[in-house]
Design brief:
five-stranded parallel sheet; 17% strand; Alpha/beta knot; 2 domains; EC 2.1.1.228; two-stranded antiparallel ribbon; alpha/beta; binds S-adenosylmethionine; elongated; tRNA_MeTrfase_TRMD/TRM10
């Protein structure tokens, strides 16, 4: 998977991504990152890429041409059109299903806005997907891009040491994941549930499934509508 990020702050993307699991996956060649500074395409000696909004109002707007030129440079290198995601609070809210779909692509471009956003005309030209990470407003698209890239990366085969862990995680089945425990067996008087120490694989699986259902019903009952529950599990929930 190759990620291109169009941004005014490439160092923020590079530092965020060259760490931990994603950093190791890059070393292994499973992921690659190309953070492109839009300012390099400013086309003026002051490297200015923003201007006042027409019609007045607070803040500055990122101008169309530098964003377009930076985007063109990527598509020219690739020799084809690339799926281009604009991070914006106005977009569809990002979720695991969208991550699974984006993970099917070989290359993705993330476009990060700053200030009051980007001139609408260039968005109409280059953007294929408008994505938000939630109903709140950040100062820029860099953290949202990192959130999306991290989520998508975990779905790229080989990035996680244990492929099963992506399959059993929260949202995979419209259920939240069961609680996890590690050593010691007893911590400050709290014991690890005995079934997890039993070595009985089927009982462990049964307990985990029940815990997932209980937890989802308690914290995210909205998810349960889409979860595939057996008749017995539905009765268990009612009881
Ligand atoms: N004026 C814009 C509006 O009201 O829709 C908000 C601009 S915001 C201050 C600057 C940039 O941060 C946006 O262009 C976008 O790239 C990014 N951004 C802010 N909040 C975001 C969110 N919830 N999801 C994704 N991107 C976001």
């Amino acid at each position: 998977m190759r990620f291109h990020v169009l941004t005014l702050f490439p160092e923020m993307i590079e530092q965020g991504f060259h760490t931990s699991i994603t950093g190791r996956a890059m070393e292994k060649g499973l992921l690659s990152l190309n953070a492109v500074n839009i300012r390099d395409f400013a086309g003026n000696k002051h490297m200015k890429v923003d201007d006042y909004p027409y019609g007045g109002g607070a803040g500055m707007v990122m101008q169309a041409e530098p964003v377009y030129a930076a985007h063109q440079s990527l598509e020219n290198q690739a020799g084809r059109k690339l799926r281009t995601i604009y991070l914006t609070p106005q977009g569809h809210t990002f979720n695991q299903k969208m991550a699974e779909e984006f993970a099917q692509e070989e290359e993705l471009i993330f476009l990060c806005g700053h200030y009051e956003g980007i001139d609408e005309r260039v968005l109409e030209e280059v953007v294929t997907d408008y994505v938000s990470i939630g109903d709140y407003v950040l100062t820029g698209g860099e953290l949202p891009a990192l959130v999306m890239m991290d989520t998508i990366s975990r779905l790229v085969p080989g990035v996680l040491n244990n492929d099963v862990s992506a399959e059993t995680e929260s949202f995979q089945d419209s259920l939240l994941e069961y609680p996890q425990y590690s050593r010691p067996e007893e911590w400050r008087g709290k014991k690890v549930p005995s079934v997890l120490l039993s070595g009985h694989h089927a009982n462990v699986e049964k307990w985990r499934r029940e815990q997932s259902i209980i937890r989802t019903a308690k914290w995210r009952p909205d998810l349960l509508e889409k979860a595939q529950l057996t008749k017995k599990e539905q009765e268990f929930l009612k009881g």
